[in-house]
Structures are given as C-alpha cells and as structure tokens.
Amino acid sequence: MWWTITFAYKSSVPLKLVSFFKLTCSDGRLAFDSPPTMTRQDTATPTGSLSAQGPSNTGYNNNPAPVPVITQTNSRDKWSKKMDFLLSVIGFAVDLGNVWRFPYICYQNGGGAFLIPYIVMAIFGGVPLFYMELALGQFHRTGAISIWKHICPIFKGIGYAICVIALYVSFYYNTIIAWALFYFYSSFASVLPWTNCDNAWNTENCTNYFLKDNVTWNNYSRSPAEEFYTRNVLEIHKSDGLRNVGGVRWQLMLCLFLIFTIVYFSLWKGVKTSGKVVWVTATLPYVVLFILLIRGATLPGAWKGVVFYLKPKWEKLFETSVWVDAAAQIFFSLGPGFGVLLALSSYNPFTNNCYRDAIVTSLVNCLTSFMSGFVIFTVLGYMAEKRNVNVEDVARDKGPSLLFITYPEAIANMTGSTFFAIIFFVMMITLGLDSTFGGLEAIITAVMDEYPDYLANRRELFVLGLVVVCFLGSLSTLTNGGAYVVKLLEEFGVGSSIIAVGFLEAIAVSWFYGITRFSNDIKSMLGYSPGLFWKVCWVAISPAFLAYIIVSSLLKPPPLQLFDYKYPDWSITVGYVIGASSFMWIPIYMVYKLVLPATPTSFCYI
C-alpha cells in the first residue's frame, strides 16, 4: 500500500516551470522520490532545504489559505532593453497634462509656494503608489485583471474598472492628439493661418494686436488663434451644446484615423515594437521643450512671465484647495491606478530594480512639469508685453485652450513661426502618443492575461479590434460640439473614479494581501525589504492621501463650463452615470464572488 503527495516548489529565482517534489509512503516510511529536472530562466542553483528558498515565511505561518504559485514562462514578452521600459514609463507619465495642467495649477495656487504641497504630496502619496504598482506588476507578471487572483480575488472588479476607465480615456484623449495633427498640417504655410483676421472663418470680433499700435482689447475681442481653434478646427459655433452636437468633422476623423493607425502598428507586436517607438516619441519632446525654452527666454517680457509663475504667495498654503490640487496633480501626473504601470512592469526581468526605476521616473516626471512651466510662462509674459496687460489677464486659459490658442498665438508672431509651430505640434503629438500606448497596453495586457486560451496567439487581431472600438467610441468627440463631449469625459469618465480605484487598490494590497507579504515579495526580487517609510506610506499615508482627494472633490465639485457654455444639470447627471459605469464593476464582482460557493481562494489570503 502506498500513496503520493506532490508539493509545488517556488523559488525566489524565477522559473520557467514549477518544479514538483514527490513524497511516497510505503510500509509506514516517507521518502522523496526523484524530482524532475528544474528548468530555470536564470542559471542560479538552489541551495539549502525547501523551506529556506525564496522570501522569508514570516507572516505566512498562521495563514492556512494556499497562495498561488507564480511562474515565469518564456512565452511572455520581455523588454529588449532596460531603456525601452524606462522610456515607456516616462512617456506614459509625461503627457500633455504636464505641459498644460501643472503650469496653470502652479500659478493659480501660489506660484513658488505651490511647490511645497506638490513635493509633500509626491513624497508621501504619489511616489509610494508609483513604486507599489511597479513592484506588483514585476512580481506577479500579469495584467490588471488576473493579478487579483494572486492578491485578493474579491477585488478583481478593480481590474475591470481600470479597463473601462482606460477605454473612456481613449475616447477623448486621442481626439486631442487629432486636433494637434490638424494644427501640424496647417503649420506648413509661409504665413500661419491663425496669424491674422483675413480668413473666411473670422468674425468682426477678431482682433489682431500684434504688429499694430493703439489696438483696443475688450471682453468681446477674440484673437485670430482663438477663432482658428473654435471656428475652423472645432467649428463649435455650429453646435448648440450637448443637446445638438452637430455632424462629424471629416477632417478631424481623418486625423484620428491616422493617429490610431500609428497606435496600432506600434502596439500590434507587443513591447518589442512599442519599446522601439518610444525612443522617438519619449525623447523628442525634451529636445523640443529645450528649444522652446531657449526661444521663450529671449522674448521681450519673458522675465515678467517667470516672476508671475514662481512668485510665492505664502498665504495660499493655508487654503485646503491648494493641497487638494497638489494631491490631484501628482496623482494624475504619475498615473498610478490606471493599470499601465502594472502592465509595463510585468514584462521586466524578475530581479529588475523597480525601486530605482520608481525614483528615477518620478523625478523625471516632476522636473518635466516644472520645466514646462518656464516654457509656457516665458511666452505668456511676452504676450502680456504685447497686449500691454498683466500676465494674469493672458493666463486665464487652461487645459487644451492653453496649447491650442495661447501658445500658437505667440508662435505665430515670432520670427521663424512656421518652424516653431511645426516642432511644437510634433511635441504635442508625441507626448499624446506615448500616453495612448500606455493606456491601451494596460487593456491589452489585462485582457490577454485573463483569457490566454482565446487570445494568446491572436494579439494582432485583438489589438485591431480594440483600436476599432476606440475609434468608434471617439466619433462623438469629432462632431461640431465634440469639445463639450471631451470635457465631459475628462471630468467624469476619469476624475473621481480612477482615484477611488487607486484607493481600493492601495487598501487591498496593504491591508488584505498584507504589508508583510508584499514586503517579502519585494525582498525576493531586490534582495532587501522596503524600509519603514514605504511601509507606513502604503498602509496609512497613501490611502489617506487618496481618500482626501475623493472627499474634497465630492464636497466641492467645481462648476463645469467650456468657453461660454455652462453644462446643464442633466449633463452633470449623465456625467455621474459615466463615472459610475466604470466603478460599479467592483461591487458587482464582489457580489458575484459572494454568491458563488466559497472556495479557499474566493475572497482574500488573510
């Protein structure tokens, strides 16, 4: 009479195959049977007893629930070079928001004084969450949906919510890139079309104050750049608002088609292709920013803009809204919670130093935002000088208007305007493409890892289907009133939903999966455990940081307005429905798990 027990052996060194040890019992005696040969991705040889392998079991002894064995196979893509990964992460984190959002929020919230709450929120909130996601993706080597099988299965709805939010982002974000492509095409002219008021789309309110003296600027005045954007690019005057958005602009649809074509051929083969594309799309913006910074610094009135940008208003530090804006800015800038960091880091080698990567990429991101402020405000100072007004009167524009009205207007009146317009919009296109690559890769990795039996060998077809869905979902943003839809999706499709998802993710990892277990995972990769600072941030400070943003945004929601159009109450209700449509998958999946017959791994490993 004999029986056999098979044990799965998991080493801290990644394996191609899980190795199995067999115990046999014969005549009351236990003995090891000959184990099959282990095949390793790395060449390290295990030493010591079975219990000594991998991270310490501290914190596991009192947990009877089984922990899934993580395997690393050759079938999974890997980055060709370390720099491919770093540039992909930097390209995702450094996006159009670094150029338009940070400078505006900085001067609005106290100038140089704003850097204090910004740095504090980065150190205690943004960077720890950034580090956490990189470590999770690298250790578990899977996307945003299936990773929860290894962390806390009842929270798997977070992965589905992330994918829905990423879809909403793709519906409007690529339209903004299409606008930039339209401007790029229009820039190939000896005289830029937004330089003067002699075009078919201009009205009697068009006022060109450059190269002219004694020009009166009033509340009804519109610059040539503003009318080019609103009446030629968007044709928003043909829409009555969200009730009647008008027809689709075929010119913008063609631009969007070209954008998605680039996106498809950058992503269809996985990180092998996207890792090469980012060498251009992630580095070119820095070359352009440096050129524009030098040009801006030589303009008359530039110093006035820099002073306005950085002059500290210390009394602002006592306003709660300033700290909320700092927290929200660092969260959306670094991008934890979007599933992108999980996806990108899952293609890393198991022993990659994700801690160093988190610090380096976070610093690059924050410094880029800071430098972008100089690029923008040197030009705003120049415009204030030309208009003979204060910088604050010029700097009222924010969001896309800053990039499509204010900056092009200044470029149009520089020497060599065509050259600077071309490189500026190339920079905008590349900044946007990097973030699109990351957002769609998060969906691709999450879904393909969740359904490998159906999609493992069909990546090209799946990516094509995803791109088609994103293109069709973007059609409403290409209408005459498409800018209104863009604003609605930006505010409600992402907004509080992604912050709530990030909050639940931090809670699930730190409280349910356990900070001890998570620290042991990091130790098995890096050879050392994270310090006390990181543990305290993950357990308490970072979740509190996200809860603070959520509560503040819900208590005092800002009024929604674009140009002179105030969003009606029914549209705000629609916005909340859009936000709930992504977040609802979390409680839905929890209920689904609770009504199923309980299994040892149904809920959490606690």
Please outline what is shown here.
The protein is 61% helix and 4% strand. It is mainly alpha-helical.
Key terms:
606 residues; mainly alpha; Amino acid/polyamine transporter I; 3-stranded antiparallel sheet; two-stranded antiparallel sheet; 22 helices; 5 strands; globular; disordered N terminus
Structural notes for this entry:
61% of the residues lie in helices and 4% in strands. The chain is built from 22 helices and 5 strands. Helix 2 (96-108) runs antiparallel to helix 11 (320-334) and helix 8 packs antiparallel against helix 16. A 3-stranded antiparallel sheet has the order 1-2-3, with no helix packed on it. A two-stranded antiparallel ribbon has the order 4-5. The chain is mostly helical and 606 residues long. 47% of the residues are buried.
Order of helices and strands: EEEHHHHHHHHHHHHHHHHHHHHEEHH
Q: N-to-C terminal Cα separation, in Å? A: 37 Å
Strand order of the largest sheet: 1-2-3
* Unreliable segments of 5+ consecutive residues: 1-73
Query: What quaternary form is this?
Result: single chain
Helix content: 55-70%
Shape: globular
Topology:
Blueprint: E1 2-9, E2 19-26, E3 29-32, H1 82-93, H2 96-108, H3 115-140, H4 148-151, H5 157-186, H6 224-233, H7 250-267, H8 271-281, H9 284-297, H10 302-310, H11 320-334, H12 340-345, H13 354-387, H14 391-394, H15 400-412, H16 417-450, H17 452-455, H18 459-473, H19 482-526, H20 532-555, E4 561-562, E5 565-566, H21 569-583, H22 585-595
Antiparallel strand pairs: 1-2, 2-3, 4-5
